[in-house]
Amino acid sequence: MALHLLDSLVQYMKPFITLSLHRAVALALLATLSACSTPPVQPPVPSVPLATAFAQAGPSAAAGQVLDGAWWAGCGDAALTALIEEALAANQDVAIALQRVAQARAGRDAQGSRLWPAVGLQASASRSESGLPAPVKQGQPDTRALRAGVDVAWEIDLAGGVRAARDAAQADATAAAAGVEGARLLVASEVARQYFVLRGAEERLRIVQALAAAQRETASRVSSRLREGEASAFDLDRASAEADALDSQVPPLRTLAGVTETRLAVLLGRSPSVRVVGETAAFAWPAAREIGTGQPSELLKRRPDLMAAGARRGRVAARARRPAPSGGPSCS
Hints:
The structure is a single chain. The protein is mainly α. The chain has a domain at 77-116 and 145-320: Up-down Bundle (Outer membrane efflux proteins (OEP)), CATH 1.20.1600.10. It has helices at 2-36, 59-63, 78-90, 92-113, 161-227, 233-248, 250-268, 296-301, 304-320, and strands at 118-128, 143-153. It has a two-stranded antiparallel ribbon with strand order 1-2. The longest helix has 67 residues, at 161-227. The chain is elongated.
């Protein structure tokens, strides 16, 4: 009789015990997930209102166009365009940056794949022959087996660690892409700078040589006048000194042109012993372009190195959301 009453009491209290157990498990799970989560890091918001342009800039600067990726095409120089395109294709820093982008994107895809079920296929085939004669093979016959299986696994991201890892990998890919733009910008700007330095040195060399030849002609005429008694020795010495001063500027300009061409060859991956750019007297300097500047903050937003730094900051913030190794449950 006592056992019957005890069994009835247990059956009566069972729904309440189950409900209390479910509530306890839910509260424990909620407490665990709240302990695993980390509030996202929010960027600071500037409180100072910003104008649309610089205070000292004119209307033309505000209305100018923002430089695009192929800004060197606006110079209208086919030789410069060919040099920059060749340098971008041959430069090892750009190639390394591109490989880093591929690596970062592969990591992003790998982290993102963890959010989806993983499916594995297995198949095998086997065959066994006893080698016995046909009359006695019935006791140990030949066998052939085909097996196939499918494995499906899915880790449920309860604490958000997988999503945080995916976001961090995406930030790495963004930073690597900005690194490519930075490397391309450095290579293109350096090639353009060395190119214009070379053209400037060649033009100055032609001008100095023409002035030196004219001054030598002047000194020759002064020498003729000195023989006729129409000029003094001081006049001849002064004309000769001016010609010598002009001649002394020729070697440094030739050295500058040679060093600059060597730098261009290194940027292009060529041999420095071969001329990169042919000298031309018909070179025309490109006209100045109006560039839209805006505020300094807008200029900073277009800098690839700062774009990469912002992406790396997002990576750190994403990794901060990941739970500790033992901070949350794992269900699959």
